[in-house]
Amino acid sequence: MLVKRRSKDATRSGLAAFAQNVAAKPVDRRSFLRTSGLAVGGLAAFGAVGATTVRRAEAGQTDFSQPVEVKTNICTHCSVGCTVKAEVQNGVWVGQEPAWDSPINRGTHCAKGASVRELVHGDRRLKYPMKKENGEWVRISWDQAIDEIGDKMLDIREKNGADSAYLLGSAKFSNEGAYLFRKFAAFWGTNNVDHQARICHSTTVAGVANTWGYGAMTNSYNDIRNSKTIIFMGSNAAEAHPVSLQHILTGKETNRANVIVIDPRFTRTAAHATDYIRMRPGTDIAIIWGIMWHIFENDWQDQEYIDQRVWGMDQIREAVKAYPPEVVERISGISGPELRRVAETFATQGPATFIWCMGGTQHTVGTANVRTYCNLLLATGNVGADGTGANIFRGHCNVQGATDFGLDIGSLPCYYGLSEGGWRHWSRVWDVPYEYLQARFDEVPAKGGRDARDRKANMQMAGIPSTRWFDAATLDAEDVDQRDNIKAMIVFGHGGNTVPRMGDSLKGMNALDLLVVADPHPTTFAALHDRPDNTYLLPISTQFECDGSRTASNRSVQWGEKVVEPIFESDNDYAVIYRLSQKLGFADEMFKPYDMVQGKFSMEPTAESILREINRGGWSTGYTGQSPERIKAHMANQDKFDLVTLRAPADAEDVGGDFYGLPWPCWGTPEFGHPGTHILYNPNVAVKDGGGGFRPRFGLDREGETLLAEGSYPPGSEIEDGYPQFTYGILQSLGWDADLTADELATIQRIGNNDPEAMASVSWSLDLSGGIQRVAIEHGCVPFGNGKARAVAWNLPDPIPVHREPIYSPRPDLVAEYPTREDGRQFRVPNIGHSIQASAVDRNLADSFPIVLTSGRLVEYEGGGEETRSNPWLAELQQDMFVEINPTDAAARGITDGGWVWVNGPENDSKARVKALVTERVASGVAFMPFHFAGWFQGEDQRGNYPEGTDPIVLGESVNTVTSYGYDPVTGMHEGKVTLCQISAA
Amino acid sequence: MNMKTLAQRLAAVVGVVTMLGFVSINFAPSAQAQQINPTAQSVTEDSLFEALQGDQMVEGRVSIPDGLSSGLIKPGNASWASTHSGLVRNLSIAAVVGAIVVLALFYMIRGKIMVDGKLSGIRILRFTAIERFAHWLMAGSFIILAITGLNLVVGRTLILPWLGEGAFSTLTVWGKVAHNYVGWAFMLGLILSFLVWVSHNIPNKVDAEWVAQGGGLLKKGVHPPAKKFNAGQKVIFWATTLGGAALSFTGFMMLFPMLAGTQADWQFYQLIHGIVAGGLSFIIIAHIYIGSIGMEGAFDAMGSGEVDLNWAKEHHSLWVEEVQGKADPASSASKGTQPAE
Amino acid sequence: MARMKFLCDADRCIECNACVTACKNEHEVPWGINRRRVVTINDGLPGERSVSMACMHCTDAPCAAVCPVDCFYTTDDAVVLHSKDTCIGCGYCFYACPFGAPQYPKVGNFGTRGKMDKCTYCAGGPEADMTEAEYVKYGSNRLAEGKLPLCAEMCSTKSLLAGDGDIIAEIYKERVVTRGYGSGAWGWRTAYGEAVTV
């Protein structure tokens, strides 16, 4: 194809070669690498790049004489779930090729996905276990690390109790890793187990699940191609979920769809909107109620839908009368006509979808925000059909899966509650006595005026959220509602800079007796503090170095194949959790269901056998049909799935009729062959094709009105109305129990102890045989029932959400009218937000801190950023932490674009030294900082705190140094999006 | 930021009117526009070019710290490229070839200019060692610079086909090194010659007479009076001084691009450098001609430094009077044979 | 023969920088060398647009016109490549390029920039196809493998198109018709002397 030009002069005389050296060095790729770091990058810290990048260069080129193996895995960054095709030669990942067949990304990536190969070359990775000795990092062996950590944990268990060890897990775990870690916490005996969902979508899960059943994205990225109107509120998908924009922008073009962005910041997403509306941060409820005011005022609501499928909308209709245009404009800054336009478009130009992210969730009113979004969707009939839905874009590659598997202080895997029933269910699946698990938990003495708790009560009590662990470590022990303070943090794959109040978090770290960081990179948890000892770093491999499944935001489960062996001395989560449990003495019970194989340093369970256990227990969420074999078949047959419907044709081999990734709920056993559920709560298709209704989980009636659906049911349903969840008793009363096989009946009898009454209450979610689900579906019914969504969640604070000013509000005048909720206690610790808000108003804080500070993502980095800031291909693109400030505010302060500034926070004299990015992206009076940076603290460069050679290339101040107090009462979500600050030239 | 385009600067400075036609308008984004559909009304390349016109670059924001990378499209660069590879290359060729042709014609018509009288055999000191050092430092370095510089502009057309790519590349690398370092020697020579000769090169009334008589070059036997330097030499002095200064300054900026300012500034310096070098080459070739084969006895002035008295009287009568008025000519003269300049 | 071109549909570009890191990944491009970059026009204002830019492989490339050693050449696919063996690192091409494509290992004084590096359209250099010598100097040669540049292949929103100029112009025109407005084929007028009109 190509014509090669003159190849003469290939050999050059000595003189010529010398001449080249004198004048313009012949720069081959390797000498580029050797010399360019310091000279061009200008980063003093980049010094150590030399020797190691050369290795990468050698790995990077493809020697065409060697066989190339192609491995398929999933990007480890955001939740879109892009397939990664890795070319491997001799055990080295040498190239990345587009994964054309994936219906999700169709070959494409964002900056992060296109550079994941670097992760397993990992110059800056943690290379071997380390510990701190007299303030110095020293290398230790895995054996020594596990031994010492185990001894200290057992010691703390003895002295302070099991609850004193906090097990912080990760959204970077595979499903199997997340599940294993949750199980590990159960066997250890604590509910203090959490992960990143706490700080991203915990309020979404709570708000959505309390509205219609499950806390997850209802449709898929691909389905947005069907939408006619798309609202992004508090979501900057162009930077946070770039590949999703492929579907959204195509949909926008083909449908000439309306794309409306409501955000305080003119984001990269807003640049592609057809309508951008700027709002004051933290006023979502007023805005949504304002939109609904117009909808009801003009009768744009979908009354039939409401009548059939929603309970309590009339109460909302009354409530939004308190939010007429002038009130909303006063609160949010958005004019009546603007909102009317949005309301009319959204209500009348369907199908319409509503997308939100951290801009909606990270608030003291996060759960309430989410419920208003749901109400807008319900009022306009936009849930449960193509092109509609609550499209909640989740953050991390497996935050959906980690949430599903109960890395959560308040639930067990697959959303089984902490009640006795939930525990008993999992003890049956795990094949251990319920009493064994109960005995692992602490007894909590009476203190602080509170009653004592026995083991059973403690077992059923939600733990401490990850946003508050440091308060639980530093508060007076009387104020912490468990046996003792938090004394040990066992942190698997979680940054320390993504939660506000880092100054307090630092105090918490220093107060601990034990700190273990198990991560591919030393995170802020390893570098922020100055602990002299009792601090351990365990090198964990990435998901590219182990097998396992992960669940994308749209609930599709995808299998990641090990690309290369764990690099350096790192090891995978399964092995490390196994070795810790061995040391702690419960490995035999915990690991008995699994196939154990020889791993890198020890025995480890296979991911497949863990997933099979999940399949045996995950009935409530429909995690039972996704066997390893089926998921692997999907990965091998990606090209069979339709781009929009995500469904394979019925005649496709191995995957016929399935939805891609068997999005949960995938009912029944794998053999039952349910295709998964592309769109939740969709009564337009049969249950066996992924249809369903809303989940009636809040009772059968309320205030004399039914909570079951009226006249809405999926096609083929033998019950042509609403109905409650299926139990053996209901099957009996319908006469469908005869359809159960003998084996299925035997299982139900075993669960019900052969007691007819107990057997009658065995439900679709407890029946380990899957028989009840199978029979219900074969009769066209949804196992969980067919109910109404709740517009009003009577069990939550503010059953009907009301606008509440942020803790640190720039509008003290509105605080009196719309104060935050009263102080209280949640999750074992006090929440004194109201006192802090009142004090801020009393002290006229808004005068000295006049700028609202909000935060968000950059496309190049992810989460706490250690991994991505260590990747030179990404780090080069964002070399400095910055604050976005409006030109007016900058001019008033003598701040120039690119100049250094101090950002001062409202608490504890906090401050951060960052570069100014003077831009119209933010309005006057609002500033924005990305949250991926760490390694500087209040002006001090902490590069020396990292073990040598593991410091990320780019360091910078963390926004959470200056963010402040504020917690959602329902989930403990922090207020990450609104605080006050002052900015001055440095 | 200076928004002048390269073309305007050129037009202003060297009067290259052919480059005109570019108009500079400061681009102000239409931020205030009321947005209903930001997408459909988004900025397009064509609308930006319409707003910008001419060579203005389309500029935006980049996150990498390389400031130069924020320019998205810089049509001015292509203009520079076409000026460089067109006008400057042609001028350079025209200067060299033109000078040779003109001088060859002159030689054919006028022949070598001989001393009218006989050589006296008496020699007087015309240039001291320092003067000669300054001259030859400048002359030698200029020749190297001219050849290596010319090579960068026309070498690929004239030499590359003969030498082949590799050898030509090697040659050019060395040429580039030589050009970059010999430039400093040229600057030193330039400063020295300026210091020692500036007082003799102030134009005066005598020069008018000299010019009126065509310098005596055109007709045999005509010898207008002149001091140490006649008007022709003064032209060379000032051309060398000013041209050399321009070359030094622009060359310095090209060597230190960080000091040169914007890309457009550098391009401006580069074009000035090329055009001045072409012009100066023309003058210097003529100078070399008249100082060597063009005129009998001229070379000695810069060779040994001593010239024949009769040669001096014919070409620099006033200077001879001046020198002899100061001292006995016999004592300042010594034995020798050849005149100079 | 195909006439290879790049076309960035600015209505689709979201500045995700996948093109940038895909390039780094594919060719092991070192720190400080940016063969491709994304520039955002009217940042933060209505009408904001991002455009991914690299060497456009111009018709009558200005870089080739000014190169003192004539190290550039155009392949049969109209890809503009250069020989690093011949390059003397003078920097002229950097000043000639309307798109800021030429990159150097350093920006030194005395013209010591090192060998110029730029987008090769994933087509390597003068060395034999898919050899180590070619990879070390220019990166991989996807065109020889029958693939297109990775930046375009991996573009998150399929904004950046690479391939035969007529075909990608057709794809772009179809989009313009579908959505009802254009975004301008950025750089085409400067690089190829034509604009895509619908």
What do you see in this structure?
- The complex is a heterotrimer of chains A (986), B (341) and C (198).
- Chain A has 36 helices and 34 strands.
- Chain A is an alpha/beta fold and 986 residues long.
- Among the domains of chain A are: 218-393, Dimethylsulfoxide Reductase, domain 2, CATH 3.40.228.10; 812-985, Barwin-like endoglucanases (Beta Barrel), CATH 2.40.40.20.
- In chain A, the strands form ten sheets. In chain A, strands 5-4-16-15-14-6-7 form a seven-stranded mixed β-sheet, with helices on one face. A six-stranded mixed beta barrel of chain A has the order 26-30-27-29-28-34.
- In chain A, strand 31 and strand 32 form a beta hairpin.
- Chain A is globular.
- Chain A starts with 13 loop residues before the first helix and ends with a strand.
- The model of chain B is unreliable at 9-36 and 329-341 (pLDDT under 50).
- Chain B has helices spanning 6-14, 45-52, 75-110, 129-158, 160-163, 165-197, 205-212, 231-255, 263-291, 300-303, 309-315, 317-326, 329-332, and strands at 58-59, 71-73, 122-125, 306-308, 333-335.
- Chain B has a three-stranded antiparallel β-sheet with strand order 4-3-5. A two-stranded antiparallel sheet of chain B has the order 1-2.
- Chain C is α+β, with helices and mostly antiparallel strands.
- Chain C has one domain: Alpha-Beta Plaits.
- Chain C contains seven helices and six strands; from the N terminus they run E-H-E-E-H-E-E-H-H-H-E-H-H.
- Chain C has helices spanning 18-27, 62-66, 92-96, 132-138, 150-153, 165-179, 188-192, and strands at 4-8, 36-41, 49-54, 72-74, 80-82, 160-164.
- In chain C, the strands form three sheets. In chain C, strands 1-6 form a two-stranded antiparallel ribbon. In chain C, strands 2-3 form a two-stranded antiparallel sheet.
- The mean pLDDT of chain C is 91.
- The chains are: A alpha/beta (986), B mainly alpha (341), C alpha+beta (198).
- At the A-C interface, helix 2, helix 3, helix 8 and helix 35 of A face helix 1, helix 4 and helix 6 of C.
Describe the secondary structure blueprint for this structure.
The complex is a heterotrimer of chains A (986), B (341) and C (198).
Chain A lengths: L13 H9 L6 H13 L7 H12 L8 E6 L8 E7 L2 E6 L32 E4 L2 E4 L2 H18 L5 E4 L6 H14 L4 E2 L7 H11 L16 E5 L3 H4 L3 H12 L2 E6 L11 E4 L5 H14 L5 H7 E2 L1 H7 L5 H8 L3 H13 L3 E5 L1 H4 L4 H14 L9 E4 L6 H6 L15 H11 L3 H6 L15 H5 L9 H6 L13 E5 L9 H10 L2 E6 L4 H4 L7 E5 L8 E4 L5 E4 L12 H12 L2 H5 L4 E3 L4 E3 L1 H11 L10 H9 L64 E2 L2 E2 L21 H7 L7 H10 L4 H5 L10 H8 L10 E2 L21 H4 L8 E3 L2 E3 L1 H10 L2 H4 L2 E6 L9 H4 L2 H4 L6 E4 L1 H6 L7 E5 L6 E8 L7 E5 L4 E3 L2 E2 L14 E2 L21 E7 L1
Parallel strand pairs in A: 6-7, 6-14, 8-9, 8-12, 9-10, 11-23, 12-13, 14-15, 15-16, 26-30, 27-29, 31-33
Antiparallel strand pairs in A: 1-2, 2-3, 4-5, 4-16, 17-18, 19-20, 21-22, 24-25, 26-34, 27-30, 28-29, 28-34, 31-32
Chain B lengths: L5 H9 L30 H8 L5 E2 L11 E3 L1 H36 L11 E4 L3 H30 L1 H4 L1 H33 L7 H8 L18 H25 L7 H29 L8 H4 L2 E3 H7 L1 H10 L2 H4 E3 L6
Antiparallel strand pairs in B: 1-2, 3-4, 3-5
Chain C lengths: L3 E5 L9 H10 L8 E6 L7 E6 L7 H5 L5 E3 L5 E3 L9 H5 L35 H7 L11 H4 L6 E5 H15 L8 H5 L6
Antiparallel strand pairs in C: 1-6, 2-3, 4-5
